[in-house]
Amino acid sequence: MLAPLLLLAGCQPAAPDPQAARSTPQSVSPIPVHAPSAPKPRAKPIAVAPPVIPSAASALDRRIEALGSGFRGDVGLAVRDIQTGWISHYRGLDYFPQQSVSKLWVAISAFDMADRGKLDLRGRLSVRPNDLTLFHQPIRSLATRPGGFQTDREDLLTRALTQSDNSANDKMLREVGGPDAVRATLAAKSISGIRFGPGEKGLQSRIAGLDWQASFAKGNGFYTAREALLIAQRRAAFEAYVADPVDGARPIAMVDALARLKTGELLSDASTAQMLDLMGQTRTGALRLKSGLRPGWTLSHKTGTGQILEGEQAGYNDVGILTSPEGRSYAVAVMIGRTSRPLPERMDLMRKVVRLTIAYDGELAEQKDATGAGADVR
């Protein structure tokens, strides 16, 4: 019986082995493997606008416009930057009386003829009583001496430009060939927008409503004849002149011609230097443009002053070339066609135009420095 029992025992399943159970691998969740995260998009840099600085030229435009529109009178203004060609103006295309500003064109005609060998400025001549005109003529006392006054053409030019001597200018006008010769010079130089009248005798007589007579140059001849006219006659002649001046000029044309004179486009180097030097010695109008100068600045200029009727003046001007201590230059024109405002107001207007031009020069220098650092000009 023992044997079958042993056999039966051998057929039973074996009891589980606790140690074996512990060694069986257990189901393990896989460890997640994280892929490298994609780089976050880099934030765009915030754009920093360049500093904004005002345009010096635009500022000058606004200031000249405000100055002209605020003046109680018939006025034209123009400023030209000779370096850049920029022009700021008020009524710059209208015609205004030049009066003695037109002496510039007689001088340019004379210097041009000298440059071409057509006129000897050292040539001698006499100034006698029959050469006299009217109004401002410091040479009168010399011309009325026995035998007259012996001088040369260069001296007459000097007197015409620096003293605004009417008789010296009219004498030189005849020396260069008369009004038509001056007009031909303007045309040959392509100077447009500037008219040249008949000379002092014809111009001043016409404004007064008269025709020139030789007796007007003697004593009070002109004033006596003018006062004998009816006021209506004088008013009609005065109004006709102001409305359409035979010697009119556009302020823009004036500063363009002055700029071309400064840059040597109109005359030889020697004649340019001599003419600008004479304009720099101008004795008239000390309280006009010249009163606005700052230390170190210079002015070569020419004034013009017209007749007065019942408190109104037809033509009160000053035009010229401003030069900074560093050598930058600006052509300036202030032309008052008609006004009854007191002289201090007119002079103040001219002073302010010069001051605005000098301020523009400083602001332009600051603007150039700033734009070099990337500033935005507006």
Care to describe what's here?
43% of the residues lie in helices and 15% in strands. The chain contains 14 helices and 13 strands. The strands form five sheets. It has a five-stranded antiparallel β-sheet with strand order 3-2-12-11-8, with helices on both faces. The protein has a two-stranded parallel ribbon with strand order 1-13. α3 runs antiparallel to α14, α4 runs parallel beside α7 and α4 crosses α8. It is globular, with a radius of gyration of 43 Å. The N terminus is likely disordered.
SSE arrangement:
Layout: H1 2-11, H2 18-23, E1 52-53, H3 56-70, E2 74-81, E3 87-90, E4 96-97, H4 103-115, E5 124-127, H5 140-143, E6 149-152, H6 153-162, H7 166-176, H8 179-188, H9 200-208, H10 221-227, H11 231-243, E7 248-249, H12 251-262, H13 269-280, E8 298-305, E9 308-309, E10 312-313, E11 316-323, E12 329-338, H14 343-372, E13 376-377
Quick summary of this structure?
The chain is α+β, with helices and mostly antiparallel strands.
Q: Strand content of the residues, in percent?
A: 15-25%
What oligomeric arrangement do these chains adopt? single chain
Ranges where pLDDT stays below 50 over 5 or more residues in a row are 1-33
Tally of DSSP β-strands: 13
Question: H/E order of the elements?
Answer: HHEHEEEHEHEHHHHHHEHHEEEEEHE
From the alpha carbons, calculate the radius of gyration and give it in angstroms: 43 Å
General form = globular
- First CA to last CA: what distance? 124 Å
State the helix count. 14
The major beta sheet can be summarized as: 5 strands, antiparallel
Q: Strands of the biggest beta sheet: in what spatial order?
A: 3-2-12-11-8
| Structural class by SSE content | alpha+beta
